[in-house]
Amino acid sequence: MDLTFSEEQDELRKVVRSFLAKHSDEAEVRRLAADERGHDPVVWRRMAGQLGLQGLAVPEEYGGSGFGYVDLGIVFEEAGRALLCGPYFATVALAAEALLRCDDEAARTDLLPGITSGETVATLALTEESGRWDEQGIRLTARETADGWQLTGAKTYVPDGHLADLLLVAARTPSGISLFAVAAADAPGLTRTPLPTLDQTRKQTRLEFAGTPARLLGAEGTAWPGLARTLATASVLLAAEQVGGASAALDAAVEYAKLREQYGRPIGSFQGIKHKCADMLMEIESARSAAYGGLWALDAGDEREIAVAAALAQTFCSEAFTRVAGDNIQVHGGIGFTWEHPAHLYLKRAKSCEVLLGTPSYHRELLATRLGI
Amino acid sequence: MELDFGPAVRDFRDELRDWLAAHLVGEFAEHRGVGGPTDGAAWEVRLAWDCELSAGRWLGVGWPQEYGGRGLGLLEEIVFEYEYARANAPYRATVNALDLLGPMLLQMGSEAQKKRFLPPILAVGELWGQGFSEPGAGSDLASVRTRAEREGEEWVVSGQKVWTSFGVHADWLYVLTRTDPQSVRHKGLTLLLLPTDQPGVEIRPIRNLAGQDEFAEVFLSDARTGADMVVGEVGQGWRTAMATLGIERGTTLLPQQLTFEREAESLIDLARERGALDDPMLRRRIVDAWISVRIMRTTNLRTLAELTTGRTPGAQATTAKLYASTRHQQLGYLAMELAGPAGQIVGENYGLDTRQRSFLLSLAETIYGGSSEIQRNIIGEQFLGLPKEPRP
Ligand SMILES: Cc1cc2nc3c(=O)[nH]c(=O)nc-3n(C[C@H](O)[C@H](O)[C@H](O)COP(=O)(O)OP(=O)(O)OC[C@H]3O[C@@H](n4cnc5c(N)ncnc54)[C@H](O)[C@@H]3O)c2cc1C
């Protein structure tokens, strides 16, 4: 039974938290939110160089540190707490995972070291107009020509697609779903259109491909199982991020409830507020169990358990973060409704997380199916 | 759910599994899963089962050997509770003494009290009831009014206690009394051990909403007990009582949650039979019920892992009861809805099936052991550090 954190893991949390306190404070989050690119390359390189965060759970043979998902989950939780802006989720939770899960050793050897060293920003381009995260949602087609494979069609809602050096694109080929790699810089026929987002801390892009040359990863038509597994892993890591965001929102609510006075006493002494905060904590601790359960499952490696735990974590943590972020605004009253106050940043992040990998209803249905309900 | 607690306890686990396989048979096996912390069903069978456990030396696994226990560690206690719940053995009738009074005596009792009271608990020779609540002292336990006065070598106790679980079966009570008549609230309280077999003690059953005479009211009129029956110090009863309530070693939640898991599984079966899974609204609530029990499991495992590695349990330990009790109630409401009109029909003499009983009894889970409102106060004030409400 090892469902607790080691001292090394506590230390990792501390180090990441203090790094992010310096490099992703509110001023920095607001600066990047207002910026169209939303990314600080200097911090990105430090994350890789000083802390090795991009390659934390990548095996050493590809330039990573070979830690587990519990360790990586700690980083995502802290990233969520600090509302970290930039392509960390896209690169690490989606792209690096997709490479690890595809059946192409050469691609891993070629592409992962760039990610772990902090040189490459990468993302996974899967969703299209339908916004669906399942196999049927993938319509974009790839065609084999004399010069190799070419992609034609559009991907949208792609996280950090505007910045990514490396695009991993899920496409339909005659024999099924296949995964392709596109080096975005100067890729012929690629148009990238940044989409203005409700949550300005996480950027999205529309990608149009017109006969864009691409490298097939693994055997043609066999990519879906690896992608499904990637989405399961990413669901758990996103859940950890959601727990972190919710914790920060609760901290803010509690701090304010101790300070703000009405009727001659702190509002936190009123049960209406106190009990709301207690319920927020209960929600968060339950979400933590959901997310950590997923992380432990990932490290244990039982595929059925991973599929179940991932769907559970996304269903529960999405709803929990949104509720807690909304309650935080309620505890703050009018000030919480302003652009000046950070409360809305958490609410908006909560809403974008909620749909990032499919809505809670979608994940609830996945869970039901996986449980045979 | 299969959990492996590691090689160190494997022999212990195997011994227990073998013993359960050999002894949980016949009438005992027929009463699998029967009973609960406030469920008096099949009392005689459960008592006999406790005697069987006692003969096998399975009561007090973690208690010192000198008092009849096995002297094993927390991990073995956890394994015991887990395997016990896994086998779905009847709920122990003696659980109050095993989980609350015993640990309290081990922590705060005198040597003489431990020698006198612990062995009979493990031998199922004496049953105990908790006399804390009073008609005027519920959530606000510090307002107890039952008086105890010293007369020579005895304490003389008068007052009224209420909601004493399994009170009609109790040979002894541990009661919170006011020994300093001038005192208010937490000060001047004393915890006393009091025999029930005497003229000054009258115990009347109270019928609960499930139709069971489970808890009781206790009338004390010049009831007597020895001067040596004080646990902790005179005037320090609040501390002693709080120590009892603080005895939450994470071992009790595990069996409860396995029961909830069984209920969730049976709920899914029922829903399938009724075709309810095709109804999107019901389907959603069913999946959410399953999610709740799974989250309870992970929450408990987090706490157990912290306890067994010597860490201080995290915030989840303070919110676990609130979550489990409220979610279990929701599960009950849903099960009753799925059961439909057939779930509305009871047996003779208000005989309830498992589902009906579990649903009705779940309504107590948000009241006893600190109501949900009190839990939220505790979480808010003691964990989150929010200011207390000013006292009028
Ligand atoms: C099945 C069962 C078994 C029990 N077994 C035992 C036993 O063996 N021994 C024993 O001593 N006691 C026992 N109890 C008693 C139990 O501890 C009390 O019922 C409990 O403490 C609540 O007290 P009360 O019933 O007086 O309700 P009250 O305290 O009067 O509460 C009534 C309502 O008011 C709310 N409330 C009270 N104070 C506050 C506040 N400050 N803020 C917000 N809301 C508040 C409560 O949450 C509740 O909703 C048992 C109870 C039950 C239901």
Task: Write structural notes for this entry.
The complex is a heterodimer of chains A (373) and B (392). With 373 residues, chain A is an alpha+beta fold. Chain A has 11 helices and 9 strands. The mean pLDDT of chain A is 97. Chain B is of the alpha+beta class. In chain B, 45% of the residues lie in helices and 14% in strands. Chain B contains 12 helices and 8 strands. Chain B has helices at residues 10-23, 26-30, 43-55, 74-86, 95-108, 111-122, 237-246, 253-274, 280-308, 316-339, 354-362, 372-383; strands at 128-131, 147-151, 154-165, 172-178, 189-195, 201-206, 215-226, 230-231. In chain B, strands 1-4-5-8 form a 4-stranded mixed β-sheet. Chain B has a 4-stranded antiparallel β-sheet with strand order 2-3-7-6, with no helix packed on it. Chain B is globular. In chain B, 44% of the residues are buried. The interface between A and B is large, with 38 and 49 residues. The structure holds flavin-adenine dinucleotide. Flavin-adenine dinucleotide is lined by residues 38, 130-133, 138-139, 163-165, 215, 364, 367-368, 371, 373-374, 377 of chain B.
Unreliable runs of chain B: none
Order of helices and strands of chain A: HHHHHHEEEEEEEHEEHHHH
Q: DSSP helix count of chain B?
A: 12
The largest interface is:
A-B, 38 and 49 residues
Helix content of chain B: 40-55%
Q: What's this model, at a glance?
A:
Chain A is about 55% helix and about 15% strand.
Secondary-structure blueprint of this entry?
The complex is a heterodimer of chains A (about 375) and B (about 400).
Chain A: H1 7-23, H2 26-34, H3 41-49, H4 69-81, H5 88-101, H6 105-117, E1 122-125, E2 141-145, E3 148-159, E4 166-173, E5 176-183, E6 190-195, E7 204-217, H7 224-259, E8 261-262, E9 265-266, H8 271-300, H9 303-332, H10 343-356, H11 360-371
Parallel strand pairs in A: 1-4
Antiparallel strand pairs in A: 2-3, 3-7, 4-5, 5-7, 6-7, 8-9
Helix pairs in contact in A: 1-4, 4-7, 5-6, 5-7, 7-8, 7-9, 7-10, 8-9, 9-10, 9-11
Chain B: H1 10-23, H2 26-30, H3 43-55, H4 74-86, H5 95-108, H6 111-122, E1 128-131, E2 147-151, E3 154-165, E4 172-178, E5 189-195, E6 201-206, E7 215-226, E8 230-231, H7 237-246, H8 253-274, H9 280-308, H10 316-339, H11 354-362, H12 372-383
Parallel strand pairs in B: 1-4
Antiparallel strand pairs in B: 2-3, 3-7, 4-5, 5-8, 6-7
Helix pairs in contact in B: 1-4, 4-8, 5-6, 5-7, 8-9, 8-10, 9-10, 10-11, 10-12
Bound molecules: flavin-adenine dinucleotide (FAD).
Flavin-adenine dinucleotide binds next to strand 1, strand 3 and helix 12 of chain B.
